[in-house]
Amino acid sequence: MSKLRVPVGALDHVLGPPDAPVTLVEYGDFQCPFCGQAYWEVKKVLEEMGEGLRYVFRHFPLTQAHPFALQAAEAAEAAGAQGKFWEMYARLYEHQQMLDFESLREHAWALGLEDERFTRELMEHRHQEHVRRDFMGGVRSGVSGTPGFFINGERYVGEFSAPVLLSALQGRSVEAPGYY
Amino acid sequence: MPHLAGQSNAPLPAGTPAPPIDAPVTPDQKVSLEDFRGAPLVLVFYPADWSPVCSDELALFNELLPEFERLGARVVAISCDGVWCHLAFARARNLHMVLASDFHPQGAISRAYNVFQEDAGTSERALFVLDAEGKVFWSHRSPVAVNPGADGVLDALERLAGRSGSMSEDAGVSTRRGAPGHPGVHS
Q1: What is the ipTM of this complex?
Q2: Rounded to an integer, what distance in angstroms lies between the CA atom of residue A109 and that of residue A98?
Q3: Whether A62 and B95 lie within 8 Å, measured CB to CB
Q4: CATH code at A162?
Q5: Domain containing A124: what range?
Q6: Which among A27, A26, A7 is positioned nearest to A18, based on CA atoms?
Q7: How far is A133 from chain B (nearest CA, A)?
């Protein structure tokens, strides 16, 4: 099974302690309905594991299938530039039907972002390169669709319901059931 | 990569001259290997239009068309569906690659590449990278339910580029939406 070829680094968006025993990397697309489901499952997993988990989100927009996905990913990065990546990440997944340009500006407003800067960065595609780099890193690591998960650098292709994900994450430090 | 028990032999291996392809892509257009001679070609065999895994797989390859173009390669996807089915599928999913039909005689191309599922009457899920001379450079078969991703193809194309020393930029691989053999359904 494929391995994560791009290690977690300074450009990544990370939740949880750097020395957590388990790292979950997700490649996701804000317009993908499965990623929308996975968002709630990952949220439960994060609450359950607390400091025991480091979670990393990377972009994997399938722009031909999901016309708003790239713009939404750029919006998350533009929010990140103002220190609110995770707030925007949550807001986008909780409003997957509202990813058009004006809706993104409304999300930015709701999060208290500086509108002029946010809008300019979106229009100039300031963060597209970051998104593209995430995407290609995922492709080269064998991500074939979204959501794409890696647990401690190993591709995880099992179910992503919270209970199954939890057992995979917790089992990982002992053995690796459910992997291949 | 493990093959499913009971599956036939491996897909045509590296070094084999690629069997000819002469397949319809629209009701009045055909595609042949000769159309792509001089540049690497990626062949994506898949079981069926519309099935969930195939759609994910083709969505990924569709997304990567600019990357394949950068590597000087073209992409042709092949299944045993008919051209009308291909047209509807491409239109619905916004697919920009050539979809070749191996419908009649059923699976003839897939059989030639040793990636036909006799019991199901469909192509298997298999990937080939052909070199500029039309020889198989790399091949891979996935279990039907597993989306193979594109890392293997990209790795192979990069090795191929390294082998030939230079990318074939003169091979007419730029985007030509109306190129011969292209379904041209995205006006």
Answers
A1: 0.87
A2: 14
A3: no
A4: 3.40.30.10
A5: 22-172
A6: A7
A7: 12
